[in-house]
Amino acid sequence: MTNHTSVESLSVVTHNSIPVITTELLAQLYGTERQRVTNNFNRNKDRFIEGKHYFLTKGESLENLKNSLRGFHPIAPNVRKLILWTERGAARHAKMLETDQAWEVFEKLEDHYFVKPEVKRLRQPRKPAIDTKRFIGCFAAIETAWGQIHKDLLIIDPVAAREVGDLMDTVLRVGRTYQANSLLKLR
Asked: CB within 8 A of 42, min separation 6: which ones?
C-alpha cells in the first residue's frame, strides 16, 4: 500500500481537545491495510485503554464528528462506531506493525500532528521582547546619564560611587553586548 498523504499537510482532528487520528488514516499513513490495524487492536485489546490510547465514538458524538469532518476527511455514512487513536495509541500500532515506514511516519506524527498548540507556538521564531531601535536609543541616554551621576556621586560618597559603579559597569556591559548583537541582526 502506497502512502500518498503527507503528515505535515494533515488537518488536526481533535476529540476532547486531544489530537486524534482515525484507523483508516493511520493505516494509510503506516502503509498497511485498515483491517490489519483493526486486527492488531482486537488481538491486543487488553493493552489499550479507552481514553488514553483511543476514544470510541458512537451515536450523537459520531454524527457530530462526521459533520465536522465532511469535505476533508469523510467517514462512511453507514459507520456506527469509530475508534479515534491518540498519540499513545498510534505509537502502539507502530510498535505492533514493526515496519520502518510505520516508525518514520509515527515520528512525523509526533513532530507535526500530535504536537500541542502551545509547543507549536514555542517552535515558531519569537519576536524580540524588546524593540531593538528603541532600546539602543534608551541605552545611549542611560549611559550618558550614568556618566554624569557617577561624577556627582564620586564627590558626595566615593565608596558608594565604587559599589554602584561596579553594578552599573555590569549593566552597561550587558547592555552593550545586547546592543552589538541587535545591530548585527538589523543589518
From this structure: none
Grid coordinates belonging to 93: 500500532
Distance, CA of 88 to CA of 54 (rounded, Å)? 8
Give the orientation angle of helix 87-97 with respect to helix 23-30, to 10 degrees. 40
Position 17 scores a pLDDT of 84
DSSP class per residue in 145-171: HHHHHHHHHHHH-HHHHHHHHHHHHHH
Residue 130's φ and ψ, nearest 5 degrees, are -115, 135
* Terminal alpha carbon distance of the chain: 51
Span 122-149, pLDDT tens digits: 455 555 556 666 766 777 788 788 888 8
- pLDDT, one tens digit per residue, over 78-120 is 888 999 999 999 999 999 998 999 999 999 998 888 876 555 5
Contacts for 140-147: CB closer than 8 Å, 24+ residues apart: 142/175, 143/172, 143/175, 146/172
Query: Are residues 21 and 85 in contact, defined by beta-carbon separation less than 8 angstroms?
Result: yes
- Cα separation of 138 and 132, whole Å? 10
pTM score, two decimals? Answer: 0.59
d(CA 81, CA 88): 20
